[in-house]
Amino acid sequence: MPYITVRGVEHYYEWIKQPSATAKPVMVFIHGWAGSARYWQSTAHALSDQFDCLLYDLRGFGRSKGKPTVAQASESIAEAETNQQKSQAIQELTYELEEYAQDLAVLLDELQLGRVYINAHSMGASVATLFFNLYPQRVERGILTCSGIFEYDEKAFAAFHKFGGYVVKFRPKWLGKIPFADQMFMARFLHRPIPKSDRQAFLEDFLVADYDTALGTIFTSVSKAQSELMPQEFAKLQVPTLLVAGEYDQIIPAQMGQQAAALNNKVKFVVMPDTGHFPMLEDAPTYLRHVREFLQVAAPELQAN
Q: Is the model's pTM score more than 0.90?
């Protein structure tokens, strides 16, 4: 499997491309909490007629490592004797979403990529929003799927963090072998059914997510600081952005996306009927139609005509 070292940590990545006589723009896909690039594969394949699609697993999730290995850490520190800034960056990696945006910048540098399109989901969409504002010169257009802003509620947040801690701690590997466990696990995320293979992949990714990362990002992505930061980030976006919400999303309700989009006329807001937290899998044709319209690219069958 292809890996690339980003700030001392091994990251899994893959390309989904179609042969072409001319160079295509690059679209980068970012997954959400406790997931992996696997659930973006079908969308990437559908868009690979127009884009070279880059998928990667965020630090600590999927097939990417959660922290530098001993050998990598030693090597990085040795190299950094003449580069103190690099040493600090490696030693001070945190679970703040801004850090994940910086991870992406380094990944693009390592792959020698310039301006890209970005399609990000859920927690990954928050990472992408921060990336858009930190590195606007590197983004052509952005797609945020199931994203939004939320108000701080001390009691609700405390209860969420407590429950999240239990969920992350209690993840026995045998859970993935129980009949219908994948259906029960995905029930709250979906409004329409998705293939069993996708449900199983979600459960597997959840079970293998790095403990510190899974727990740490719960606290950084759902926090008072984040509730105060994200409205500011949406308000100052300069990158043309499509925000797609699922009508029945119980994780990030469509209203949160609508509130975020209302802060900036650069953001186009679309609600997909009869879908939950994974509209790109629950109703792929409608999702792809919205994306293609926003990017102003035709579907393959229309190109053939």
A: yes
With a CB cutoff of 8 Å and minimum separation 6, the contacts of 125 are 30, 32, 144, 145, 146, 147
**Residues 247-259: pLDDT tens digits?**
999 999 999 999 9
